[in-house]
Amino acid sequence: PVVTTLGPLAPADADDLAAALAERLQLPRPSPAAMRATHGSPFHIHRALVRAAPDPGALGDSLTELTPAARQVLLLTAIAQTPPSVELLRRTWAAEAPLDRALRDLRQRFLLEGRDALVVHDLVRDALLAGIEPDALAAAHADAAEICMAELRDGDRPPLLLVVDAVSHLLAAARPEEAW
């Protein structure tokens, strides 16, 4: 998969993004001081529009506002060794509607990147994992291992690296007997 990461924007580009988003979202443009505080970050520019100003807790706020389904998708994507595809999640997800809503919510919040293969930015991953309880993380690794194994069983020529991924997730889930 091709992953494109957008770094800090130049001031003029940040202003252009803010203007385009403000028009699309029908919100007033952030003040010059609020724009300077974004440091050109597209994430903080969006937050400045939605919340009136980026604050240090903006990412944490976005993470705590997530629905359980969106949080599950984000966590699975964050811990994945190989970026999961939307198609793979669709095949392994219990219901398609909550998955579609979760993906839409995560993309609107700029927490998830990619159209086919999903990727979580390192800063988002770090913030998410910092707030996860060990039991919830172990359960997410068990779910990720199951997704890998489902793709190995049912996929059309799945990448064999998924075997390594499944073992790694089972070990992280404290289930070594299943890993071997």
Strand count, sense and barrel status of the largest sheet are:
none
Proportion in helices: 55-70%
The number of helical elements comes to: 11
* Number of beta strands: 0
Helical/strand content category: mainly alpha
Mean pLDDT over the full residue set? 84
User: What's the overall geometry?
Assistant: elongated
Strand content: under 5%
Poorly predicted parts: none
Question: What is the end-to-end distance?
Answer: 29 Å
**Could you state the order of secondary-structure elements as H and E?**
HHHHHHHHHHH
- Radius of gyration, in Å, reads 18 Å
Produce the secondary structure layout.
Layout: H1 11-25, H2 32-38, H3 42-51, H4 58-64, H5 68-79, H6 86-92, H7 96-108, H8 122-130, H9 134-154, H10 161-172, H11 176-179
What this model shows, in words?
By secondary structure, this protein is an all-alpha fold. Helix content is 65%, strand content 0%. It is built from eleven helices and no strands. The protein has helices spanning 11-25, 32-38, 42-51, 58-64, 68-79, 86-92, 96-108, 122-130, 134-154, 161-172, 176-179. The model has no long low-confidence stretch (mean pLDDT 84).
